[in-house]
Write a structure and sequence with these properties.
- The structure is a single chain.
- This protein has 469 residues and is mostly helical.
- It is globular.
- The longest helix has 33 residues.
- It has a two-stranded antiparallel ribbon.
- It contains 18 helices and two strands.
- The C terminus is likely disordered.
Length: 469
């Protein structure tokens, strides 16, 4: 069994090496404090190894460890070799030191949350399980599929909102998931919005339903793994607004069946680790090649591969420059930006409340002269609450990522396990790839509806696991 210590020890060794390399490099004055990030990581990783090293690793810890290593260790090193190139336009070098110390504060908060949550929420179930289904599961699946069918009949262009992985090399791949919208409050607009909600639910719940059905037929372990991997691959045939949504769905499908057979649980976790790294590497490599071959100049293009990787990680995993850019935001409108950002997370918010004001992500991009950048979770916390309470979002997401992952491992109800896995993955990604605004949007439009469906299906002990002796 892979334990936290195995991963943390490797991360510690690499963090030590990165620190030494950076200390031996002549850094510009504005980035002189950069080696502090991997240096602090060494002590944080060692402390975590002492406190939770013996605990079995989970998908939430894998994601958090991976994102943390990327942001606090790898990205600073790439910045050094990438000549500190940034897509942010204003005052980044001047604010870099403040951004570095804010990230140090966040890292300490995140790993404190992991340790506390791991101690409070321990896994107590470790058996293999069978699964039984009631008529409710079949009824709900059929109703969801029926709605998708009706929506496509009413508006066939909804099928144009999907891209697939075979078109990854197309120049226009990154603008998939867009369909011309109807007027706010119109029937077709409502149908389209509900279509996106229902499709995201179906893309997770239908595969795990079929996997659960197949597992009852006592097929071999390798055959069951092949079935699961087949459904994982299907997630990338239907890529919606963002590629990350397919990764989240694929991870949930990949891991949901692990409780059905103890022999595949460890294999699935290992496959999940390789899968996440592999799919991200393939995605960015192909996009890089496309831009080179077509002459397209993306925001992150550079003749120096380290500069390209540095800008890419800074954008997709909210690195130093991304965090430092929050210091360009003038105060005075925090409450208005908070309200507007929370409003857009509510389904049908424009119809109910009218058009939202300027959200924090829009404000952040405008004040930094960029477009499409996701402000960091720690940066948003700093803007709303000041330095002392800046890690409040980061701490909460780390704590609940572990809590939901343990709940998924402990619970005996199949559909609740699926939903809790989704929550755990979403909270983990909020520590680098997402922020509190995106997480709240996914919870309201994707997670909560799945939880309500799970409660309906699992009602009166239906669709529960039973121990396989």
């Amino acid at each position: 069994m892979v334990r936290n210590r195995n991963v943390l020890n490797v991360m510690t060794i690499l963090a030590v090496a990165f620190t030494i390399v950076m200390l031996a490099t002549d850094l510009p004055k504005s980035y002189a404090m950069l080696p502090i990030l991997p240096a602090v990581s060494v002590f944080v990783f060692l402390l975590a190894s002492i406190k939770i090293g013996n605990m079995p690793i989970m998908v939430a810890t894998i994601l958090i460890f991976g994102i943390s290593f990327m942001r606090y260790c790898l990205h600073p090193l790439l910045m050094v070799y990438g000549d500190f190139v940034s897509i942010m336009k204003y005052n980044i070098a001047e604010n870099a030191t403040s951004g570095i110390f804010l990230m140090v504060y966040e890292e300490i908060a995140i790993f404190t949350a992991i340790i506390i949550s791991s101690k409070k929420n321990e896994c107590v179930i470790n058996e293999s399980f069978g699964i039984k289904f009631s008529y409710r599961a079949s009824l709900v699946m059929n109703l969801l599929l029926l709605y998708l069918f009706i929506a496509v009949m009413l508006r066939p262009q909804l099928m144009d909102s999907f891209m697939n992985i075979f078109k990854l090399s197309d120049t226009e791949f990154t603008v998939g998931g867009r369909v011309e919208e109807q007027n706010v409050g119109s029937i077709l607009r409502i149908v389209s919005t509900l279509f996106s909600f229902v499709f995201n639910i179906v893309r997770i719940m239908l595969p795990v339903y079929i996997i659960g059905k197949i597992s009852k037929k006592n097929i071999g372990v390798n055959s069951l793994i092949c079935v699961i991997l087949g459904f994982v691959f299907l997630q990338f045939i239907f890529v919606t607004a963002t590629f990350a949504e397919s990764i989240i769905s694929a991870l949930v499908v990949l891991l949901a069946g692990s409780k059905l057979n103890k022999k595949i649980a460890t294999k699935m976790l290992r496959i999940a680790s390789v899968f996440v790294v592999g799919i991200i590497v393939v995605y960015f490599y192909v996009r890089y090649q496309v831009n080179n071959e077509t002459g397209t100049r993306s925001l992150y293009m550079s003749d120096n591969v380290f500069s390209y990787l540095s800008m890419l990680i800074n954008a997709y995993f909210t690195g130093v420059d991304n965090v430092a850019a929050v210091y360009n935001l003038p105060g005075g409108s925090c409450f208005e930006h908070f309200v507007a950002s929370m409003q857009i997370a509510i389904p049908f918010n424009t119809t109910i409340f009218g058009k939202a004001g300027e959200t924090l992500p829009v404000f952040y991009n405008r004040m930094n002269g960029v477009f499409g950048q996701i402000p960091s979770t720690i940066g948003n916390g700093y803007y709303y609450f000041g330095f002392v309470l800046a890690p409040i979002f980061s701490y909460s997401f780390a704590y609940f990522a572990i809590k939901f992952n343990v709940m998924a491992m402990n619970i005996r109800q199949y559909w609740h396990e699926v939903v809790y896995l989704f929550f755990a993955i979403l909270c983990s990604l909020a520590l680098g790839m997402y922020n509190e605004v995106i997480v709240l949007q996914h919870l309201c439009c994707w997670g909560v509806p799945m939880l309500l469906i799970a409660k309906i299906i699992d009602k009166k002990s239906d669709s529960q696991f039973f121990v396989v002796r």
